[in-house]
Amino acid sequence: MLTTTAGTTPADVRATSRAADLPRAGWDALAGPSDIFLTCRWLDVVEATAGVPMTYLWTERDGRPVAGLATALAGDTVPWALGRPDVVLRNSVTAGLPGAAELLAGLGDDPTGRLMPTLLAGGRQVGGTRLLTGPEATAADVTSLVAAAEALARDSGAATVCFLYLDEREESLVRLLAERGYRAFTSGHYSSLRVPPDGYPGYLAALPRKRRVSIGAERRRIVQAGVTVAAESLDAADLDRFAELESQLLAKYEIDLRPGQLLPLLHQVRDCFGDDAFAMVARAEGEVRGFALILRHGDSWYARQTGYDYAYQQRSGAPLYFELLYYRLIEEAAMSGVRTVHYGLGSVDTKRSRGCTATEQRGHLLFL
């Protein structure tokens, strides 16, 4: 089993392997409005379900954290494909994303052997794997944390250090990584949507006329199919059914995660997030036909997981995805004072067609 050690961590960097031992209030104070997956409660979820060693690094000033970096040590057997640089790099080549083909071509016949195990820096999540900084953080703090991650990776026998989804706007960190010899490729695009103050009417008005007409037709099909969509608490949710539907969705993308593997994370989210987690649920003919798990952080909502009954959807013609994750969700978001909905990676053209904007995410790899 892979293990981590902080034996050669720089003297000014503190480290722990348990999120429970972090200075939690100070750490969370570093997290911005887009950093829900770097907050302590999400780190608790990942730590309990990822099945890999985690290490949290931070620097302090006057006893308070000023910069922090979450890491996870992943081997070549982890099932979460979109957290693996070998899988993500191949996917980026297939998608024709910049820098990916050149990087993969230089790895020979065994890219997995060259890339894995890897120390994932910036959190074990899909999108926004960054280094947290507060107003008192200096360039020296950032450099110390990156150096600490590299030392941790070497001590742990990793082949690479990887910031797998670093946003293009993290310009100073991107420059530092380039100076330290990291190689980069585009790993995806992260989509989000600003919720108009008047909610759905304003959202619809901002779209082209042709799209407005098609959305009207989609929503009529939902009504004609007898589908109801509502926001529901996770306390009473059928999480087993959610896991079954999510597994069906992942199978479409050749990701083999069974319901039993997905269920623990749903339980952890329910227990760790409380009222800041809920589900948009589509029901028809007495059954749950689709769901979207939503997390709240400040004035933002995050669409975290989703799944669908594809046999029902094919039979009924009901466009559940768009009703759950856009039209009905935007109505709920506006009523709840939410300003931004985060949709994460993937399907960037589809998300843009529904009003999202996207920023480029880049994988940065250091070969050890």
Automatic annotation (TrEMBL):
<protein>
    <submittedName>
        <fullName>GNAT family N-acetyltransferase</fullName>
        <ecNumber>2.3.1.-</ecNumber>
    </submittedName>
</protein>
<dbReference type="InterPro" id="IPR007434">
    <property type="entry name" value="FemAB-like"/>
</dbReference>
<dbReference type="Pfam" id="PF04339">
    <property type="entry name" value="FemAB_like"/>
</dbReference>
<keyword id="KW-0808">Transferase</keyword>
<dbReference type="GO" id="GO:0016746">
    <property type="term" value="F:acyltransferase activity"/>
</dbReference>
<keyword id="KW-0012">Acyltransferase</keyword>
<dbReference type="InterPro" id="IPR016181">
    <property type="entry name" value="Acyl_CoA_acyltransferase"/>
</dbReference>
